From TrEMBL:
Cofactors, names only: Mg(2+)
Domain Pyruvate phosphate dikinase AMP/ATP-binding span(s) in chain numbering: 17-287, 301-351
Segments forming domain PEP-utilising enzyme C-terminal: 519-869
Protein name as it appears in the record: Pyruvate, phosphate dikinase
Limits of the PEP-utilising enzyme mobile domain: 421-502
EC number: 2.7.9.1
Molecular function per GO: ATP binding; kinase activity; metal ion binding; pyruvate, phosphate dikinase activity
Organism name: Anaerobutyricum soehngenii
Amino acid sequence: MAKWVYLFTEGDATMRNLLGGKGANLAEMTNIGLPVPQGFTITTEACTQYYEDGREINDEIQGQINEYIEKMEEITGKKFGDKENPLLVSVRSGARASMPGMMDTILNLGLNETVVETIAAKSGNPRWAWDCYRRFIQMYSDVVMEVGKKYFEELIDEMKAKKGVSQDVDLTAEDLKELASQFKAEYKEKIGEDFPDDPKKQLMGAIKAVFRSWDNPRANVYRRDNDIPYSWGTAVNVQSMAFGNMGDDCGTGVAFTRDPATGEKKLMGEFLTNAQGEDVVAGVRTPMPIAQMEEKFPEAFEQFKQVCQTLEDHYRDMQDMEFTVENKKLYMLQTRNGKRTAQAALKIACDLVDEGMRTEEEAVAMIDPRNLDTLLHPQFDAAALKAATPMGKALGASPGAACGKIVFTAEDAKAWAERGEKVVLVRLETSPEDIEGMKSAQGILTVRGGMTSHAAVVARGMGTCCVSGCGDIVMDEANKKFTLAGKEFHEGDSISLDGSTGNIYDGIIPTVDATIAGEFGRIMAWADKYRTMGVRTNADTPSDAKKARELGAEGIGLCRTEHMFFEGNRIDAFREMICSDTVEEREAALDKILPYQQGDFEQLFEAMEGNPVTIRFLDPPLHEFVPQTEEDIKKLADAQGKSVETIKAIIESLKEFNPMMGHRGCRLTVTYPEIAVMQTKAVIRAALAVQAKHADWTIVPEIMIPLVGEEKELKYVKKIVVKTADEEIKAAGSDMKYEVGTMIEIPRAALLADEIAKEAEFFCFGTNDLTQMTFGFSRDDAGKFLDAYYDAKIFENDPFAKLDQNGVGKLMDMAVKLGKGQRPELHCGICGEHGGDPSSVEFCHRIGLDYVSCSPFRVPIARLAAAQAAISMKH
Ligand code: PEP
Ligand code: MG
């Protein structure tokens, strides 16, 4: 019989896949002797089984849960529903990878009228007992039975109004008792049956709810963003309750062993007296800094500091912990490697190396490459920032600079961002339903909540700037306005946020680009030391190329030459070329384009300082370039001495039913060889000119032919290129080398890569087209149905963003083997969008690619991901 349930004493930190992160760490903390309220973990496999069984917990699993309840009762000396010593538990989710706030939690489970009376009498604190019960009914109704929270909140508000008090804490035991019975009546009205009294029934309901929450919409979005597979499932932790809300010698807190925003080595956190954990995280009451805990609970604080040290030494990483103090005694409820900003991640990794806790390789492996993104994005211009006066200040909860137009709801944030607006989401507080809106916003500003509030934690995870807990704001969410520093702000007004200092500014402050320095530089240098795969960039302009070089690109892997044709009056010459009737006319137009191309290529060679530059010949269907407006058509007709009708007829003739599979790529050269002749001349002349200026560089231009599917096709085009290039080189009296290679972006080319490699000196995988053609999905339209694919669990990711390793990857693997088998010196790279996606980069390393090429801002991400791939394959 499979084992579905483990006591905390039966597990350890290595069992993360089975017990989830929280369960494995509760077991580990138990093993190393820390004060952990005991309990058990139902495995992630049980979650998978629950879904396989049609969202039911089968008898075998139920049987084991019941058995473990008994074991837990023995260990704690408490019993479910007991009149003397009742057992109360928390039920929490815990996946392999932490997903803060995405799944459900139920506290105070095990309560019923009898148990409440017992604990009220035993503790001498009936107010606390009834408060627990009304919280439990509320949470259970909301989480397990999905009765909305708002009905209960309305009842609380009515009760407060009736009693003439403004705070929950001002309600008496009697008030709370009456509320509990009102809540139960509300439950009966909504659900049609009595609120369950039997703790075991309550527990099964709660466990099912946690399993079910694995599939809730916000968890699905979070998983997709964080590359967490649906198949992993969540574990459920059932833990004996420790009470932080039993009175003034109780409390609860959340703390980090290092600052999760900056990485600084100091205890950071928040604490609330007489409260339960959810109160801190929900940001409903603004908590006090952890240091103040020392005054209230000196002994528990001293012990807590020691626990922090023990846990850091044990896990050799920054820890994020939840704890409770019950009657002055400390209980640890959770520890995990803390989520952190990119900046903090770099500092912590470097500090751990300097402290002798981690090796360089381990430090490199600790950084999530996707996080680097935030460091590469603009910060406020220092001078403009100095000149600006903040109109308010709150907590700098997640660093970065954000400016944009104010919106008040997550839906508005999403809708405005979709139409291209930059927005700042301003809320009283955020909740998990706001996730999509938070993702769409440049920054988030909340009125309530601390550094560990939902807004702060989630924003840090996403790398979005966040300023939280600005109590000075007088908010009017209903009318979409707020007042700050005496000024009223409405939807659409501009503000700027500094997520590092917590400053809030009226209007827009200009931003500047980030640079790689300090710890960022150190980590990147280590990454370069351990990676074996090259990293190039996709760049079509000298400025992109320079940026990429600054960010560490070792060459250009893809220059899309057609992108150079749109600037200034170049497009006119290009349109003349397209609308030519004869070879002579076309050549005359190409002669006009040649100097532009040559000049651009020279700048690219200069920017790359002798590193490889791959120039891809004209690729897209020509109709993309034809004039659209009457005015432009007339202009072209005049320039060519043709009638408007003739031009319109040519434009009409260029229309295709399936342009992406039409007259494009190398097919253009087969029909118009003179285009390839011009482009070859431009590349070779540019390379010769730059080589002549820099004797210490060895320039070997790489000419790349797109959309090849057949060896003879490439042979035909290559012949034209080689003839032209050799003539140019000879005429210049040079012996410069150059290479002619091809993109592999049609499945047939991958299947016949050995034949193609007879002609190609290099391969570069164009995984945008290769994905399009392997799936038969249009790369421009797939977005229209991908959401339905995610909902139906057919796909977990966009295959245009994250490489489909099973299908497209199989073609790539095969092509590399066939190609290198034919021509051992063949070099292979990738230049589709996937070249900057960490998991795809890892795959590229595994199949033996020589380099990846990606957009400039993703170069550091690719460098780090390549290093991580090399390190993990080594060990
Ligand atoms: C590709 O298809 O992956 C590629 C890099 O080329 P493009 O995106 O220009 O078609
Ligand atoms: Mg392509």
